[in-house]
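Exercise 7.
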Amino acid sequence: MADIELTLSTVPVTFLSGNSAFAGAEGNNAAWICECGEPIPLLGRCYFQFGHDCHTVCPACSRTYRVLPDPNKRATAVQEIRPITQQGAQNVQP
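Solution. The predicted structure, written as tokens, is:
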């Protein structure tokens, strides 16, 4: 089976503060800069082969993000979410 060429695209990033930015996305992965300004880009994915929800936490400020997929499990956006609780359930954003 041959490799499938992935297309690099730009997708929106939405922060809880109401600000927005852009992420680079390829396949089910996206990379973006946290709103806190941490210079090392965060990397997230919208699909995990075992069915778990994926989220990315900034090591500098602990903001939590989720990469949102399209029906084909390709990254379409990044959204800051409320922190994940101890039980693993996400607090719903207003």
